[in-house]
């Protein structure tokens, strides 16, 4: 183990003012239009998700799942990103844009690209995935294709299971236009009064609590489904007796759900958050999806009543709201899915004998343990670590951050068990985690009732870091057992999110975490850490110093290199530092899942920068930062993306990995991800992403995730053989 003094993550106490002046001078040498638009880049990410749905080599139920993911992603993009841009424009606030264009032009470009992608998404379902499902024996049929007996059975199903929960709402002088909830699927219905001849309008919400696809029984080997809205549409006469149904069309509204809370002006964050959640339900409309056959009369009425513009209307062929394809996950057809993968217990945490219980504290005392989820089990590592801490009589205290989890989570239960056993337990709960706010409030109160000390973070900041600290008494002294991760303490998402977690008994990390938790729960302000880089005070500056050191090493002819794996890369200061490093000859490799504003391969600016993206059965979620450091690589993992909010408005933490074998493991993974023989998307200088999945002969390239699964399995077999 290296001496602690050499592990200072902040690279010493060089004069900050001198460093800032040098950076500003370098910025003058960079061209003005050097960033890709972040919103268009996000849409490009969702296009990569769509390309997986279009890929015939992907199992067909997985393709349907990717279509649903695309739809869900796009909903959130409109509810948050587009809504935020519009709110700023309306209120006159500065609109963040790194491409030097007017905000209205940005919105126009977003609209055009989103229209194109939604049409492509609809075509992928109707022309590719739906026919492929039918070939596999899973048909999504229309009402007109049913025979009389089947139609009769479905009518009976409708009367028994659907009709009682429907609520048609008339629109007339006595009934104003109803409130349309965000993301709900609705039918706009025009009817004629048979007695007066007057035309009326009604709205009918498709009940979200019912299965979106109604299974049709039959004698054949396959299975058939009818969309719920089609079943309802063909029984409208039952809802409007004595009326003539003239026309009906599906529509769907997206509302602004961007949340703003002035924390410094509120006395109670939870009460303010609950009020904001109520307000969010009634946010202004920002997108209207309609079927392509909707008549002009109905469309004009919706535009008028919803106060929405033509640019915000998306006229689509086929079914709306393909999030409903998530429901197909209930189909028991493993042959149409990715081969099952059961996460393996990390070698260090395997019990000494079969059916025995592992001593995680003993394993961590032997040396740092790096765990890679979901290839290695979350349940037998992170979860077992906290459960063992909860029942261990020598454990005195547990401190943990919680960003997204669930009320029935074994993580929450372990903290409750620990508190009820008389241990000191601190849970720093980030209740403002977007779209999980209501759930977070519920289980935060559950923790409080059990005696856990619940803290809701710092005013003006979200606590996004993934940290757990266990204080254990051993032989008359206190020892720190620490976990720093890249992903949430969530057993459910740990099965589909790719993440790393580092367990260590290193006293320096323990002291760093103790200081950080004190800062989060009290009023301490820690200026410096040894093995951590922490936002918002030091993370940006620390990374900029590491990147600049690589630049200086390159200029001096020393080995240099920067590798960064993140979900998003949009921060201008970090990007500019990478540009300057590239200009000095530093090889820069960026592995990004989502947004990336870097323009790679531009002569004189970024010809030494390479950007790759990998998407697949697991969501790439870990963050890794490696610096060549003149032949002595420094590697960090943690929770921070390269975005303004992560570096300036969140509490984030990176920990330095020091075990040579673990450093090499992370470097080897990165090398394989960036290799031309690995399946990935390559980013071009104009923002175009090109998929590389086969070689010149048409043979498939290496699938990184499958390769990693196989590698973990081989390690396990080798251990068993010994």
Automatic annotation (TrEMBL):
GO terms for cellular component: polyphosphate kinase complex. InterPro entries: PLipase_D/transphosphatidylase, PP_kinase, PP_kinase_C_1, PP_kinase_middle, PP_kinase_middle_dom_sf, PPK_C_dom2, PPK_N_dom, PPK_N_dom_sf. Pfam families: PP_kinase, PP_kinase_C, PP_kinase_C_1, PP_kinase_N. One of its GO terms (biological process) is polyphosphate biosynthetic process. It is an enzyme of class 2 (transferase). The active site is at residue 464. An intermediate of this reaction is the autophosphorylated ppk in which a phosphate is covalently linked to a histidine residue through a N-P bond. Residues 616-646 form the PLD phosphodiesterase domain. Its EC number is 2.7.4.1. It comes from the Bacteria. GO terms for molecular function: ATP binding; metal ion binding; polyphosphate kinase activity. Mg(2+) binds at residues 404, 434. It catalyses: [phosphate](n) + ATP = [phosphate](n+1) + ADP. Keywords: ATP-binding, Kinase, Magnesium, Metal-binding, Nucleotide-binding, Phosphoprotein, Transferase. Coiled coil: none annotated. Catalyzes the reversible transfer of the terminal phosphate of ATP to form a long-chain polyphosphate (polyP). This is Polyphosphate kinase. It comes from Microbacterium testaceum (Aureobacterium testaceum).
């Amino acid at each position: 183990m290296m001496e602690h003094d050499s592990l200072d993550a902040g690279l010493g106490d060089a004069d900050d003012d001198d460093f800032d002046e040098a950076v500003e001078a370098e910025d003058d040498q960079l061209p003005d239009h050097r960033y890709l638009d972040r919103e268009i880049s996000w849409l490009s990410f969702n296009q990569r998700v769509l390309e997986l749905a279009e890929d015939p080599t992907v199992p067909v139920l997985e393709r349907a799942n990717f279509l649903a993911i695309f739809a869900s992603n796009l909903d959130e993009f409109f509810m948050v990103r587009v809504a935020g841009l519009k709110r700023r424009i309306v209120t006159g606030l500065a609109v963040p844009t790194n491409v030097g264009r007017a905000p209205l032009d940005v919105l126009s470009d977003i609209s055009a690209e989103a229209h194109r992608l939604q049409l492509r998404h609809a075509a992928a379902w109707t022309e590719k995935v739906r026919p492929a499902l039918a070939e596999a024996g899973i048909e999504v049929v229309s009402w007109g294709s049913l025979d009389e007996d089947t139609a009769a059975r479905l009518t009976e199903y409708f009367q028994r299971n659907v009709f009682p929960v429907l609520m048609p709402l008339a629109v007339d002088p006595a009934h104003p236009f109803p409130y349309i909830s965000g993301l709900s699927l609705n039918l706009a219905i025009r009817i004629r009064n048979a007695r007066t001849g007057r035309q009326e309008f009604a709205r009918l919400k498709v009940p979200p609590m019912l299965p979106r696809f109604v299974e049709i029984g039959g004698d054949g080997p396959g299975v058939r489904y009818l969309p719920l809205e089609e079943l309802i549409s063909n029984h409208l006469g039952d809802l409007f007796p004595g009326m003539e149904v003239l026309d009906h069309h599906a529509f769907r509204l997206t509302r602004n759900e961007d949340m703003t809370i002035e924390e410094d002006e509120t006395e109670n964050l939870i009460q303010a958050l609950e009020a904001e959640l109520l307000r969010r339900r009634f946010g202004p409309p920002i997108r209207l999806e309609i079927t392509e056959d909707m008549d002009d009369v109905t469309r004009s009425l919706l535009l008028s009543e919803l106060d929405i513009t033509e640019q915000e209307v998306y006229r689509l062929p086929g079914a709306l709201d393909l999030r409903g394809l998530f429901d197909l996950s209930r189909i028991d057809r493993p042959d149409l899915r990715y081969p099952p993968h059961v996460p393996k217990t990390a070698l260090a945490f395997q019990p000494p004998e079969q059916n025995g219980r592992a001593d995680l504290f003993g394993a961590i005392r032997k040396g740092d343990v790096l765990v890679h989820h979901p290839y290695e089990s979350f349940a037998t590592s992170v979860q077992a670590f906290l459960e063992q801490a909860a029942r261990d009589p020598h454990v005195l205290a547990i401190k943990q951050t919680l960003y997204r989890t669930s009320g029935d989570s074994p993580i929450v239960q372990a903290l409750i068990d620990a508190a009820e056993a008389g241990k000191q337990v601190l849970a720093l709960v980030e209740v403002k985690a977007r779209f999980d706010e209501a759930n977070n409030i519920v289980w935060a109160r559950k923790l409080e009732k059990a005696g856990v000390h619940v803290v809701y973070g710092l005013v003006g900041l979200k606590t996004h870091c993934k940290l757990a600290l266990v204080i254990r008494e051993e032989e008359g002294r206190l020892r720190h057992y620490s976990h720093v991760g890249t992903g949430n303490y969530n057993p459910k998402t740990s099965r589909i999110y790719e993440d790393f977690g580092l367990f260590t008994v290193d006293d320096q990390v323990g002291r760093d975490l103790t200081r950080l938790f004190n800062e989060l729960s009290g009023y301490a302000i820690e200026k410096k850490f040894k093995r951590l880089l922490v936002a918002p005070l030091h993370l940006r500056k620390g990374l900029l110093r590491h990147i600049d050191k690589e630049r200086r090493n390159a200029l001096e002819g020393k080995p240099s290199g920067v590798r960064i794996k993140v979900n998003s890369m949009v921060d201008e200061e970090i990007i500019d530092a990478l540009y300057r490093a590239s200009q000095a000859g530093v090889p820069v490799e960026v592995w990004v899942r989502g947004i990336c504003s870097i323009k790679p391969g531009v002569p004189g600016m970024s010809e030494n920068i390479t950007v790759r993206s990998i998407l697949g059965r697991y969501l790439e979620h870990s963050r890794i930062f490696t610096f060549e450091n003149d032949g002595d690589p420094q590697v960090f993992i943690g929770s921070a993306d390269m975005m303004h909010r992560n570096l300036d408005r969140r509490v984030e933490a990176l920990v330095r990995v020091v075990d040579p074998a673990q450093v090499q493991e992370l470097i080897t993974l990165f090398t394989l991800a960036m290799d031309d023989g690995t399946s990935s998307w390559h980013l071009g200088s104009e923002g175009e992403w090109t998929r590389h999945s086969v070689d010149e002969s048409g043979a498939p390239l290496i699938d990184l995730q499958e390769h990693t699964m196989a590698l973990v399995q081989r390690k396990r077999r080798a251990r068993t053989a010994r």
